[in-house]
Every structure is written in C-alpha cells, then in structure tokens.
Amino acid sequence: MSFKDLQLNRPLLRAIAETGYDEPTLVQEKTIPLVLNKKDVIVSAQTGTGKTAAFALPILQLLYDKQDASKKGKKIRALIVSPTRELAIQIGENFKNYSTYTNLRSTVVYGGASIEPQVDALKKGVDILIATPGRLLDLHKQDIANLDYVETLVLDEADLMLDMGFIDDVKKIERLCTKEKQILLFSATIPYKVEQLANTILKAPKRVEVAPNSSTSKNINQLLYYVPKANKIELCLHLLRNTIKGSILIFRRTKYGVEKLEQTLLKNGYKVDSIHGDKSQNLRQEALINFKSNKVNILIATDVAARGIDINNLDAVINFDLPNVPETYVHRIGRTARAGNTGASYSFCSADEKSYVKTIQQLIQIQIDVIDEHPYPLDPKAKPMIHKSKKTGSKHRKGRKSEASKKKKKRWY
Ligand code: AMP
C-alpha cells in the first residue's frame, strides 16, 4: 500500500515524500482510514511503529479544508495530550514537518519551562495544540487555552500517562473539550486501567493492534555477559575500552544507577550524558541534543525517560541492568540495527537477574550468545545477593534519594 492509497492530499504527500517515507507502516495503514472516517480508535502500538504519523497525518488532512480561517480566528481543533515533555516536543516536530505545505499552525506547551512564550504562541492562534496535562490545565484556567472547539483529542502513551498519576487530569481535559469530539487513544500496552478509561470516554471505538514485537532483528548481534553485580561497572569500562564503539545507549533501572554510572564514565574520560526523571526539562533536552548531534556518544537512560523518544540508529545498546519485562528487552535493543544497518546489544546479567534471561529467551525464541571470555565472570554457583538492611542508628536516615527526587513524588521514573 502507498500513502496515495490512503487518500491523503497532495500537500501531505509532498511532505511525506520529503521526509523520506516510501510507504505507510502497518499502524498507519490501519489507523489513518479510521481517523479520516471520524471514528474513535484505540491503538495499541509502541514507539518506533510510526504511530505519531498515524494520528498526525489524518488530523492534518481533516483540518486542511478549514485551514484558511483568518489567523486570528484560529481555534484549537486538535489537541494531543502527552505524558512527557520530550514526547510532546517530538510530536510537535512531527506536526511541523508534515504540515510544511499547509497553513495549519501547531504549538507545544509543557511544564518546567517559562509559560510566557507559550501564552504568546497560543494568543496568536493555533489549529493544533500538543500539551502535557498539568501545563494545559494551567493555561486553560488562565483562559489562554480554549478547548471549546476541539474536534479531535489524542491521548498518547495512555498507559504511561496513567502510571504517572495523570488520570484525573486526563478526565478533566476530556470534559473540557466538546462532547462531539473524536478521541484517539494510543498506548503501548492496554492494561485494565487503560481499558476502563477507554470505556468511560470513547464512543464505540475501533481497535488497532500492532502486535507487540516479540522478534528481534537478525541484524542485531545479541551478547550476554554473566557478571557479579559489583563488577558491572568494571565490565562496562572494559567493553567500552576494547569492544564497543560508536553511539551507545545504556539502560539502567533506576535514576540513582544512571547518575552513578554517568559519574564513573565521566571520570574515565568518556563523553556521556543522561536522561532520567529527576533532571530538569532543559537538562534532559540538552542531553538528547548532545547525543543526537554526536557531541557525546554515550547516553544513559532509564526505560521510562527514554520511552517514546526517537533515539535510533545506534551502534550498540547496553543493558546494564536487565529488564524484568521481556518486551522491554525487545524494545530496547530494537533501537539499534534500524533500516538494514547492523548493531549489537550487550546484556549484563548478575545472579539475581538470571530468571529474566529465561523469560526474555522464551519471548524472542533465541538463545542469546553467552560470552564467557571476560575478566569478571560470574561463578555459576553464585546465589542471588540477599540485601540485608545495614541500617544503624536513627531510622530517619536520609537514604540515597536526592532531595529533588523526594519532592517529585508523582514522577517515579
Ligand atoms: P514513532 O513510532 O511515531 O515514534 O516513529 C518512529 C520513527 O519512524 C520516527 O523516526 C518516524 O520518523 C519514522 N517513521 C514514521 N512513519 C514512517 C514511514 N512510513 N516510513 C519510514 N519511517 C517512518
């Protein structure tokens, strides 16, 4: 199927061609006709499937006919709600790209940044607003964001939005828009609470499922290192010195782990940056720009901070900590070896993570190659470490969480 077959208009086809897309992805093929038919849709698809264009393109097409309303008279007619600022910015970039040959205007609003430029942009009038929930509600309260004319509401990464505690905000936003609007709900997974939300706000939704990808590309050389937990940093340094080159994304489970590894790599002279939930918006954005522009070649991230973010074309992914959800492994390593390139993944498994290897291998139906020849092998008989509390003295010890982390309870990633 081609984009032409999807009945998209010329200005959009031209922008698509210039972006370099040859044909629609599966999720686009299935979703675009439904959106154009003004259906409510629940789409379960992960980042990397092309899901942003699956809603952005038909929304632009639907708005195109009314685009010549005088600029001052522009009303927000499409609203995209996104859980994180990075994702919102990325969606905004997509809209800007695809709308090059239209007069449709879009803007992005998110917290953690000065509100004035966002107010100015909204006052000038936009057709499409991409927003994080908190800032959107703020702007609505101040009578800056009028949602009375929203014809299409998109909830992106709905599962993450609910995990982050935005359920009430999302429901409120939905109520602030017109009753007649079309709702598109995108979610990587559809757990019960997403289903419940969909049942309360969507009308006779159509469903699109892009099967969670359980296969890994043949072009990824997947390697597994059994290593004691205490030696993971040494193993990482050893591999960076001798084996792994190019642009590298390293996943760690916790923010604390990300920080610790970043400090070690910096001390060892590596060009490295990181993203996690305790960093300010500016620092996170800066880290992404540094990485994408090759100013640094190593980025360390938590899964949630990296979620939805377009960081592809990597030479290698290091699973410093193994994920306990096997699909996350597929998702992580799928960021390398895109578009026919080759790539490699290096997974570090300590004694307490052995069961994760089992479930990952069951999912991908591949035995991952084990590399025994390295300086920090794990004793095969090693038992998982049992963490005994070393607490002494006052039980009101500070603990290892940063002050910023304690303040931002809602953001747990
Ligand atoms: P997304 O799942 O929306 O985050 O998109 C993942 C990546 O796929 C982005 O870099 C898009 O630019 C790219 N992409 C989206 N649609 C297509 C397409 N039809 N052909 C090739 N690449 C695409």
UniProtKB/TrEMBL annotation:
Signal peptide: none annotated. Its EC number is 3.6.4.-. Transmembrane segments: none annotated. It is an enzyme of class 3 (hydrolase). SUPFAM superfamilies: P-loop containing nucleoside triphosphate hydrolases. Keywords: ATP-binding, Helicase, Hydrolase, Nucleotide-binding. Residues 32-208 form the Helicase ATP-binding domain. Residues 1-29 form the DEAD-box RNA helicase Q domain. Residues 219-379 form the Helicase C-terminal domain. The keyword Nucleotide-binding applies. InterPro entries: DEAD/DEAH_box_helicase_dom, DEAD/DEAH_RhlB, DEAD_box_RNA_helicase, Helicase_ATP-bd, Helicase_C-like, P-loop_NTPase, RNA_helicase_DEAD_Q_motif. A motif (Q motif) lies at residues 1-29. Residues 377-413 are annotated as: Disordered. Residues 384-413 have a biased composition (Basic residues). One of its GO terms (molecular function) is helicase activity. Belongs to the DEAD box helicase family. This is DEAD/DEAH box helicase.
